[in-house]
Structures are given as structure tokens and as C-alpha cells.
Write a structure and sequence with these properties.
Layout lengths: L15 H14 L32 E11 L3 E9 L5 H14 L3 E12 L2 E3 L3 H13 L1 H8 L7 E10 L2 E9 L6 H18 L6 E3 L12 H6 L2 E10 L1 H7 L4 H18 L8 H12 L6 H4 L3 E6 L5 E10 L11 H9 L8 H24 L3 H8 L5
Parallel strand pairs: 1-3
Antiparallel strand pairs: 1-2, 3-6, 3-8, 4-6, 4-7, 5-6, 8-10, 9-10
């Protein structure tokens, strides 16, 4: 049976006419009527590099939460955070957390690391060969770095991690990437570096692959949790006892006890981190601001720590070890996504760490709000009120 191919225009496939032709094709070959997906306000000519077979748009509701008060290294002051979601109560919950943390004086945010990886693997006849290669790599780092950086004006090779297994040497090339997320940048730079290595290493290399999967691109990994991928951001705050009692109808002791209990449950279930629902906040902001949505797989990882202070208040922090964000390139320049970034003054160069701090602070607000809703037994009632899409 011959398949019917989706139509494409060889000369210019990014026009309203080409999109309309594809919609007609889908309508003729499926039960769908593509009315709403045909409604969009931008010129399809801006889309090369973002999508293929462009046919229309999937519209998603977006709301703002805030003001979110941040005392950061890069984000300072009040922010209104765009969140795209179809889950009722989500924006309201984050909004509640933002109101609470603002009343407590704001969230302190700190970017402690920033790196993007590509992870090639080299194969040798024996482990001894891998060891000799390891020594040569360390001796020639400066030349390898120079080769990698010929491909980019902004990417810088910081260091290379070395991991042995059998007769292979797995490497993790760590780059700073400016305001780009950097996966494509690091892939190209590492490819050129590997070509230099192959052409200059004096001994036999049996084989090599540009990705040995130790960068765990778009997958969660413990290695990235420890060594960072993207921005490693810490958001922290001390919430006064009286404020918790007034705003959330709970106490520091109740919240702390619930956190200890839930961490044990997560351990039993084999959870990969101890956050409550960081993926909600990360995904909602990612979609609104044109981030690569698949990076939620890595970026949602969170390390939550809390304690009751000697004064009886509640210290709470969230560490995001693999927050991959961009404020330039990719989907960030698309019209609606750019507007959302501009609402936070996060579009363009010099803004990626600022966006990372805003997202980390947003995640903290959602963790506090949901945790308190569970403790005060308001979780079900709030979802019943706001989270059901009744006809």
C-alpha cells in the first residue's frame, strides 16, 4: 500500500498557503475539522529552524502569577510570571505562594553553576589503551579547547570530565553557553574537537561516538544532579511563624513533619528527587517562554531542604541542579513567547541567569503552596473549586 505524503512546497514551505494546503490534506484524510488550529497572528516565514510541516497552532491558555519578589544576583524586584497550562488551580497555587513569600520579604536566589555538556565516548582495544588516551587528553586540553571554540563566539569549553568503563573512555565536555540553552552549540563544538583528537592522537582509536549518553540529554540523571546541566540555581527563604499561621493556616512544625514523611514515601517509591511538583511550574513557564519543552525532563529535578529555625520560623530552600533555559535563540523569539519573556525583562542577551532565578523562585512558591494545602487539608477542596472543567 502506498502512503500518502503530507504536502510540502519545495521553494518555500513556510507560507500561509502551504499551511492551509496541509490542513486541507489532514481534513481530507482524517475526521478532523481544523478551524481553531488555523488561527494565528504571525507570519509563517519566521519559523524555519523551529518546526517542519507547519500547519497551524495549538493554542494553550496562559495566565500571569505574581507579583513575585526576588532578591537575586540577576533577578531583583517584583515579577509577573507567565504560566501556560490547562490544569486548574495551578496558577492560583503559585500565585498564593508568591503572595506569601512577598510578605516574608522575598526569595533569595543564587546561580552557583552554569554548564552545558556533550559526552563523546572513545573505544580502544583494551583498558590500557583507554588509560593512555586519558593521559594524552589531559596533556592536550588547551589544543582541544581551541579547536572546540572555533565553532562559536559565545561557547567556552570549561573542562572535560573523564570516566572509565571496560575499554572505553567516556568524556563530558562542559561548556558555558551564554544566553543560549546550548545543546546544538556544544554538539557542533564537540564534533570539531573530536575530529581534531582523531587526527592528532598518535595511537589507535578503535571507534568513537559523538554521544555516549553520559550527558543524558533530555533525561533525568543522578550525574546531572551532582555535576549540574544548565543552570544550578538555589532559591531560599525564611517564613515567619505568624505569617504561616495567618496565610496558610499551618505551622512550621506541621510543614516540617509532613516534609519528612513525604520524603520517606518518595524514597520507598524510588522517586528521583524530593520536590513536591516542580515540573508543574517549570513546564508552565517553559511553554509560555519558548523553552525546549523536552528539557523539563532534566530541569524539573529539585533538591528541597527545610528546617524549623531556633526562632521558631521555617527555612525553606529549593536547589534546581539542571535548569536549562534560554533567552535568545530557539523558540524564544517567536511572537507570543517573546512577549512573555519581555513581561519579565528576560528577552535577549544577558538575561538567561535572570530567567533561571525567576523560575527557581517560582518553583519554591509552588512547593510551599501545595505542601501547605496538603497539610491544612485544602488540597481537594481547592481542586474541586478551581480545577474541574465542567461543561
Amino acid at each position: 500500500m502506498t502512503s500518502i505524503k503530507i504536502p510540502r512546497q519545495a521553494d518555500n514551505d513556510y507560507t500561509r498557503e502551504a499551511a492551509a494546503e496541509r490542513r486541507r490534506f489532514i481534513e481530507n484524510n482524517t475526521p478532523a475539522i481544523l478551524h481553531h488550529t488555523s488561527q494565528f497572528s504571525f507570519d509563517p516565514n519566521i519559523l524555519p529552524g523551529n518546526i517542519e510541516n507547519f500547519s497551524g497552532v495549538v493554542q494553550m491558555p496562559m495566565g500571569f502569577a505574581g507579583p513575585l519578589l526576588i532578591n537575586g544576583e540577576h533577578a531583583q524586584g517584583d515579577f509577573y510570571v507567565p504560566m501556560a497550562t490547562t490544569e486548574g488551580t495551578l496558577v492560583a497555587s503559585y500565585n498564593r505562594g508568591m503572595g506569601l513569600t512577598r510578605a516574608a520579604g522575598g526569595i533569595t536566589t543564587t546561580v552557583v553553576d552554569d554548564a552545558m555538556q556533550r559526552s563523546p565516548v572513545f573505544v580502544f582495544a583494551s583498558a590500557r589503551g583507554a588509560k593512555h588516551f586519558d593521559e594524552w587528553m589531559r596533556e592536550n586540553f588547551t589544543a582541544i579547547k581551541a579547536a572546540a571554540e572555533t565553532t562559536t563566539n559565545t561557547g567556552k569549553l570549561r573542562n572535560i570530565e573523564h570516566y572509565f568503563a571496560s575499554r572505553m573512555l567516556y568524556l563530558r565536555f562542559n561548556y558555558s553557553t551564554g544566553d543560549a540553552a546550548g545543546q546544538n552549540m556544544t554538539g557542533k563544538a564537540t564534533y570539531i574537537a573530536c575530529q581534531w583528537i582523531i587526527n592528532n592522537y598518535p595511537k589507535k582509536i578503535v571507534n568513537y561516538y559523538l554521544s555516549g549518553n553520559m550527558d543524558t540529554d533530555k533525561k533525568h540523571s543522578q550525574l546531572n544532579t551532582l555535576h549540574s546541566r544548565g543552570k544550578r540555581v538555589i532559591a531560599e527563604i525564611t517564613l515567619p511563624r505568624a505569617l504561616l499561621q495567618e496565610k496558610l493556616r499551618t505551622t512550621p512544625e506541621s510543614l516540617y513533619q509532613a516534609r519528612k514523611t513525604s520524603q520517606l514515601g518518595g524514597l520507598m517509591a524510588g522517586a528521583v528527587h524530593n520536590g513536591v511538583h516542580p515540573a508543574n511550574g517549570v513546564a508552565a513557564v517553559f511553554i509560555a517562554t519558548g523553552q525546549d519543552e523536552a528539557n523539563v525532563a532534566e530541569s524539573h529535578a529539585s533538591l528541597v531542604f527545610s528546617e524549623v529555625t531556633p526562632e521558631g520560623d521555617y527555612y525553606y530552600s529549593v536547589t534546581m541542579p539542571s535548569l536549562i533555559v534560554a533567552t535568545y535563540g530557539g523558540g524564544t523569539g517567536l511572537p507570543t513567547q517573546r512577549e512573555c519573556l519581555e513581561a519579565m525583562d528576560c528577552y535577549g542577551t544577558g538575561k538567561a541567569r535572570k530567567l533561571a532565578e525567576i523560575i527557581a523562585a517560582t518553583v519554591l512558591c509552588g512547593e510551599i503552596s501545595l505542601g501547605a494545602a496538603v497539610v491544612s487539608e485544602e488540597w481537594v477542596s481547592s481542586h474541586d473549586e478551581l480545577g474541574r472543567n465542567r461543561p
